[in-house]
Amino acid sequence: MLSKNEKGKPTSTPYFYRCHFGVFLLMAGLLLGCGILDSITHQLRPGNQNKNASQGVEAEAAPADNATPNQLQDEDTPSTVNTDDTESSGSPSQVTVSSDGTGDFATLVEAVAAISPESTIILGIGTFNLPNPLEINKPLTLKGAGPDQTKIASEAADYVVKYTGDGQFIIDGIAFQHKGEKPANVLDVMQGTVDFNNCSVSGGIRSKEEKVDGGGLIFRNNTTGSVKNCEAEENGWAGIAVVDEAQLTLEENNCSTMRPESYS
Q1: CB atoms near residue 169 (< 10 Å)
Q2: Which of 8, 9, 45, 177 places its Cα 20 to 30 Å from the Cα of 139?
Q3: Phi-psi map region of 52: left, alpha, beta (phi>0 left; psi -120 to 50 alpha)
Q4: pLDDT exceeds 60 at position 164
Q5: How many domains does the chain have?
């Protein structure tokens, strides 16, 4: 309805105010609704969801202060293996050594020290002179071209070669010779299992005062195995001696020319 002014004329002013007031309420409602909607949509945005989720995971996955290093490693990260106490990290192999210094190693001593247990050393034709007694403490194979072509020799006291390993010690086609006047056995085996074939031992010198040494092949303690087609000659004591609890199978071997005068 139209209202009248003091002169009695109709006027639309009250209606105008009512219209604008209604518009104002409508706009305020829309603004309030947009604010709430914006807050909701802000929370539902993918970036904010990922951020909140990642924050929750980080807090949940935080390790305890007393967690061990392995517990802190990722599942795909390889563990570090400590090999300080292992005898060797390599696999058995076959290497060659020549008397002139060529081959995989310059000397037999270097080859024995470097190879892994159960490896094979192929010795070429010639004489391999050892400046000191050679102790072998790992299972391995020494293979030559025959005792008349491949020789291991030394002038050192005590022994030419001694085996102290636990596994199998194999010799095939090699001559072992002690030279000089110092008391020594030629090939001394302390333990393990042997397989000797087509070899020879010579030159053992027995101690005149102590009455020891001088043997060609000596098998001690609980050594087991076999010796076949081997020859022992010109030694100051037994060509092949099996002592203590050792048990050997001996086949087609020849012991000759013992030298009782070979004392030092």
Answers
A1: 25
A2: 177
A3: alpha
A4: yes
A5: 2
